[in-house]
Amino acid sequence: MTDTQSTMEELARDPSSRKRFLKMVGGAGAASAFAVFLAACGSDDDKSSDGAPKVSKPSGSGSGKGAKKDLEIVNYALTLEYLEVEFYNQVIESGQVKDKKVAELAMKIAENEQEHVDALTATVEKLGGTPAPKPKTKFEDVISGGPDKILKTAAEVENLGASAYLGQAGKIKNPEILAAALSIHSVEGRHAAALNTLLGKSVTPDGAFAKPASMDEVLKAVKPFIAS
Q1: How far apart are CA 93 and CA 88, in angstroms?
Q2: Which residue stretches of 26-146 are H helix?
Q3: CB under 8 Å to 14, separation ≥6 — which residues?
């Protein structure tokens, strides 16, 4: 077992730690999301005969290495949130979306994403790091494509965002950062479900369990939207 796995395994093994963690995140809804995190972070070979994840006693804290990795993950998440905020702000400013309900949804999502940026920035600073710089974006082709292309891209971005947080869950060392990531993951998933519904697609495109995406997969997917 690696140091970065110990937080997930401690929470899975210790009911009192898990109770404190879920209270930190927000109760029953968080419990469901945490179950998805555990399912995504383990394979069938990592489960006992009753289907529960196998856990073992954590090794040393590895605080220095773990903190460095957590900082990298938070800045990675911050970069994705920058992109989302800029996308929605440009969409709103363009006036391309004429449907009132869709426009209101875009504004609400933009507000949520800005709150994520603020929270992640504060977290980086709390960890003693430097927040990632805002990337220059290029959403012109999407916005000029009109409402349909905008809506489709928004859904793709939100589904990708949810998968991105899920993909990093098992690598996060600090339980407070894991709690924050879980909270944001849940909201990204709700954004994705709302947009999927508008497109006439399934609210659960991956079925009962969401699929995580690696950092490389996510960065490759958003590369077309980054100018520099």
Answers
A1: 8
A2: 28-41, 63-94, 100-126, 140-144
A3: none
- In CATH terms, 62-225 corresponds, of 3.40.228.10, 1.10.600.10, 1.20.1260.10, 3.40.50.300, to 1.20.1260.10
Angle at the Cα of 53 from the Cα atoms of 51 and 55, rounded to 5 degrees: 140
8 Å CB contact between 159 and 205:
yes
Which distant-in-sequence residues (6+ apart) come within 8 Å of 191 by Cβ?
109, 112, 158, 161, 162
Q: CB within 8 A of 174, min separation 6: which ones?
A: 7, 66, 67, 70
pTM of the model: 0.76
Q: Are 63 and 174 in contact (CB under 8 A)?
A: no
The whole-angstrom separation of Cα 153 and Cα 89 is 14
* pLDDT by 10s per residue, the chain, length 228: 444 445 556 655 565 655 555 555 454 444 444 444 444 444 444 444 433 333 333 333 345 777 899 999 999 999 999 999 999 999 999 999 999 999 999 999 999 999 999 999 999 998 899 999 999 999 999 999 999 999 999 999 999 999 999 999 889 888 888 888 988 999 999 999 999 999 999 999 999 988 999 999 999 999 999 996
Residue 75, both tokens:
């800045």
169, 210 Cβ separation under 8 angstroms:
no
